[in-house]
UniProtKB/TrEMBL annotation, chains A, B, C, D, E, F:
InterPro entries: KaiC-like_dom, KaiC_dom, P-loop_NTPase, UPF0273_KaiC-like
Family: Belongs to the UPF0273 family.
Keywords annotated in UniProt: ATP-binding, Nucleotide-binding
Protein known as: UPF0273 protein APY94_10445
PANTHER family: UPF0273 PROTEIN TM_0370
Residues annotated for ATP binding in this entry: 30-37
Keyword ATP-binding: yes
All residue ranges annotated as the KaiC domain in the record: 3-247
Organism the protein comes from: Thermococcus celericrescens
Transmembrane stretches, start-end: none
A molecular function GO annotation: ATP binding
Presence of the UniProt keyword Cell inner membrane in the record: no
Amino acid sequence: MVGRVRTGIPGMDEVLHGGIPERNVVLLSGGPGTGKTIFSQQFLWGGIQNGEPGIYVALEEHPLQVRGNMAGFGWDVRKYEEEGLFAMVDAFTAGVGKSREYERYIVHDLTDIKEFIDVLRTAIKDIGAKRVVIDSVTTLYINKPAMARSVVMQLKRVLAGLGVTGILVSQISAGERGFGGPGVEHGVDGIIRLDLDEIDGKLKRSLIVWKMRGTSHSMRRHPFEITDRGIVVYPDRVLMRKTVVELD
Amino acid sequence: MVGRVRTGIPGMDEVLHGGIPERNVVLLSGGPGTGKTIFSQQFLWGGIQNGEPGIYVALEEHPLQVRGNMAGFGWDVRKYEEEGLFAMVDAFTAGVGKSREYERYIVHDLTDIKEFIDVLRTAIKDIGAKRVVIDSVTTLYINKPAMARSVVMQLKRVLAGLGVTGILVSQISAGERGFGGPGVEHGVDGIIRLDLDEIDGKLKRSLIVWKMRGTSHSMRRHPFEITDRGIVVYPDRVLMRKTVVELD
Amino acid sequence: MVGRVRTGIPGMDEVLHGGIPERNVVLLSGGPGTGKTIFSQQFLWGGIQNGEPGIYVALEEHPLQVRGNMAGFGWDVRKYEEEGLFAMVDAFTAGVGKSREYERYIVHDLTDIKEFIDVLRTAIKDIGAKRVVIDSVTTLYINKPAMARSVVMQLKRVLAGLGVTGILVSQISAGERGFGGPGVEHGVDGIIRLDLDEIDGKLKRSLIVWKMRGTSHSMRRHPFEITDRGIVVYPDRVLMRKTVVELD
Amino acid sequence: MVGRVRTGIPGMDEVLHGGIPERNVVLLSGGPGTGKTIFSQQFLWGGIQNGEPGIYVALEEHPLQVRGNMAGFGWDVRKYEEEGLFAMVDAFTAGVGKSREYERYIVHDLTDIKEFIDVLRTAIKDIGAKRVVIDSVTTLYINKPAMARSVVMQLKRVLAGLGVTGILVSQISAGERGFGGPGVEHGVDGIIRLDLDEIDGKLKRSLIVWKMRGTSHSMRRHPFEITDRGIVVYPDRVLMRKTVVELD
Amino acid sequence: MVGRVRTGIPGMDEVLHGGIPERNVVLLSGGPGTGKTIFSQQFLWGGIQNGEPGIYVALEEHPLQVRGNMAGFGWDVRKYEEEGLFAMVDAFTAGVGKSREYERYIVHDLTDIKEFIDVLRTAIKDIGAKRVVIDSVTTLYINKPAMARSVVMQLKRVLAGLGVTGILVSQISAGERGFGGPGVEHGVDGIIRLDLDEIDGKLKRSLIVWKMRGTSHSMRRHPFEITDRGIVVYPDRVLMRKTVVELD
Amino acid sequence: MVGRVRTGIPGMDEVLHGGIPERNVVLLSGGPGTGKTIFSQQFLWGGIQNGEPGIYVALEEHPLQVRGNMAGFGWDVRKYEEEGLFAMVDAFTAGVGKSREYERYIVHDLTDIKEFIDVLRTAIKDIGAKRVVIDSVTTLYINKPAMARSVVMQLKRVLAGLGVTGILVSQISAGERGFGGPGVEHGVDGIIRLDLDEIDGKLKRSLIVWKMRGTSHSMRRHPFEITDRGIVVYPDRVLMRKTVVELD
């Protein structure tokens, strides 16, 4: 029986029948504003509270802003960075031009997946990480879709090889179906999809676990909310999205 | 608790539960004729009335016409330009051929994002701007979509780094879904979408806040009107767009 | 208060709440057979009757045929060409091979937008034109869509700079949505869309003003007819297009 | 008042309110099996019976087979070829490899639109043709869609210049909307669309005149049949195609 | 009156009002699993039983497997190959690498349409073939769609020139509309479409004759079955496919 | 009468009217999370239990993880590898960078289909394999779709030539129709499609046999479940998927 990693997100572990199976690499897929980043940060915070070191690889925000955003939900990671329970990998400044290097773990060239993996591997070993979030993996192949499968495969291999449970954040367009392309969605151990839908003039949040290797899981679409303490999932409620036919 | 920037648009701050959180960079997305330019100019005028200096980066209209259009709504910015409460960046004439340089802040080459950012940064520092509108950001990558994410990321970094709250106007096609492409819509702190829909032979205006970092906000679609004094949003009303199936 | 240009099309000025605001450059968009050319010629004829000189830039038909077609509706422009109230720019023969040069204003190379603008500017100045129709602007970028925004921007600047009110005819495919592409539809001051729809086995004509800078306007879809005296719009009637789901 | 060319197709002239206006170049558009070739051949036969010489430009079938197919409907053109009331232009063998040259008018290189036009012009002048069918014009630009508008424009200019009324057969895919692409459908004087639809398990034929310069025409969709004497149109009946939502 | 080729498929000749007109080249179009190959082999077997020699050009299966598959339906062609009533052209092994050359008629290079036609012509002349099946013609232009029209035109010319009635099997994707592309579907004398549709959880087979030069034919969609003796068509029954709206 | 290969999946052989016909090469097609890998591994395990040696070609997972995953369902293959009833071909490490070579059968270069086939052929001969699974075949042509048909054809020829019954796993995107592209879906002897659909907020699994050469089979869509002992198919139940119209 494979062990479980508790997400620490209220209601989510019930949806997952106990948590994410250890060493699984899970695609967390959703459009803009669906809560992917909050979900993944809450997952890391849940690990810290449980004594499981975690790493956040920042590709979309400056590490300083990431820390600030997390603190806004009550998840102040700075203390845990000092204690070796949390680490930040700065893969953001590489994408927007060089800046002073405040961070300990820095990826300098996003086009070099080998450097990316080397930095990630070092960080994992340094703190003995059990959880890793890459937010987002999409940015690693945004302008070279033919590389998507290879990038995801290499990441998965490194993470699984080091005994880490990983979340790969996958950015998709609003209203896009699928989870990030065939090369990506078949390569991962699990897929969690976050949705934000306009129904009768109101925005509704929901999530569905599309696949999860090594465990059964809820086969239903569950509503969730984003509160000022993070995400709350309702495992006992089901959202039925109305059939909507839209302008193309 | 992060501070708020009051939009000054009647009804809009209620929709935003108090205004746009400071330093957020917000995508203002909509098709032709939806009122994006009016919304963004009214936002700057609201700042001026509040003593907060603002900058309008003109990419779609000649600065002279921008001033005229604003004056048509009662927003005469010329006095405030002299007082240092408002500044115009002319990134329009660069796109349509060189002309006599009347403007103080001019971008000469739109293909050079570095120059664009340098001029913008200078203008922000000169007047101590608190609000910036780039109308439209779409023009900066219209013929090079692979650059969209990078451009938005760099702008966001500069604006946030200088303590500015920004609106990036995103032009989308009539009937197009999404907000301007995946690289753009995931990179910003907030998304406000303006819509113009034909329903039973009548055109209806509405807006919806799709995401806004650092605040809760209305999760509903609100009707709005364009009057001769600018936009008025109805925070207590909800527009339910009918299900429409259209010729593809 | 900006002045108005009366279209001279029965019913249309009511739809526009008084006419097109002076110096506006308006996209007249529609599929094949929707009446774009007739609308734009009638607009010029309305100007002539009002003492406002006008120019028709012919890109789709030989100037001789244009004059004949107009005469068929009772709009015989030849007398007014002599009086300097009307001028034709021949940008048609350039596209189909050189011919004897009967016309006074001729564009020889459609790939050279500068020449096009020079000829147009000369014609405008020669007769002191107040109205210009370019039929169609689509042909100027039909095989180079990345140039569309730039072409429209340059035309708009020239026309507005010379105090002219302009109609740019935009050809779209039957059943196509939008108005001619994002670069085009965001750059203009107004959009009028003409439609021809098959509803229950019958063809129905209608138009809708999608945007018009500087004026309020009807927000409804109005039926119109093409008679042997030109277009008649019904400002008091609304056409509700049925929801139609079609073979893709 | 422009003269009319009687199609000679039972019921069709009523649909056209008297026939096709002289010198119009009409796009006859339809999917496979809709009857385009039969319609256009019947149009030429109608001319012969009326003493108006006609030319069939064969691009899809060998001229021998064209004559045979026509004879199958009772339209034996061989006698009229000798009398100078009918001529065939062989633009077919050029497309499938060289063969012995039985025909009087032969186009040797379909990629050379100038040669095509020269041969066509010669044939028109030789017999004083009043009607021309090009079956199909699509083949002239099948592998170079950017040339479509230019080809149609040149053909239209030649035909109109020689006083000929023309039918350009436009092949579209089954279920495709539109009439053959924007460059084509805006350039012609008229559009007649032939349709073959499966409705409740039965195939139904219908046609609609989408536009026709110089005349009013029925604005309805009319059923028609293909008999062993050619096409019969029912001008007093209307076909309402059911709303059909199909697998994409 | 043109002669008819009896298909030998129970019910099919009634659908065709007597069979396929002699020398017609018919596109047999359908998705995977629709029964195209069985239909075409049964057509050849019907010819053999009628004393009309036939040729099967194998592009999708090894000739040995083709013979085996046919024998599985009770159509053992080996005896008839010896008697000169049947011949196989091996155009399969060329596509998957060279093998020992067991077959009498072999196409070595599928990229060389001239060699293909030479081999086919030789085989036709050797046995005096009256029927030819090319299964599938799609493979001849699968990676060069711009060549599709030219390939079909050349094949049609050769087959018709030699007095042969031909079936060109056209492979389309599941759920795809049309019959194999505009260049193909307009060039042939007839189109028979085979369909396999999931309706309320059950797979249903049906066919429809979309066009057939030289004969009237059923204008309805007929159900058919694949039995262990081949295809049986029900000319007295009509299948009405339900309107289905599917995920795109 | 062709022999049958029993899948060993409860309920599946009833659906197949006795099992997969010997030597058939079957496409097992489905989106992410549909159970393709489990189905194919269970098929091999069923063979082992029946004394029929089988080979799993791993392209998506490391061979060690494949063994672990199978063991999780109670299918511990290690003993059978030693006994020569099971073999693993490692075509995974080639795709993600070289690693220590633990495996007996290794493909080093996925771009070299000849090497792939050589290794596969050797493994088949070594253990006298009767069943082969390639998971997934999609990876062999993911970045070169024009090669898909050729790759599938070569594989089919090798497998059939060696008397093997094969399953080719085909990865398609969530919501995609078809089975993996026209070149692939027409080339195989059978197609089994696995589906995972969200219906009223719940995920439902079902499968349908789209084609299977050499046998009749259920023409219905059957629900199935994934249990901790593998897949269970319900041959007596039918799933009717609701008509769903979705955001595009």
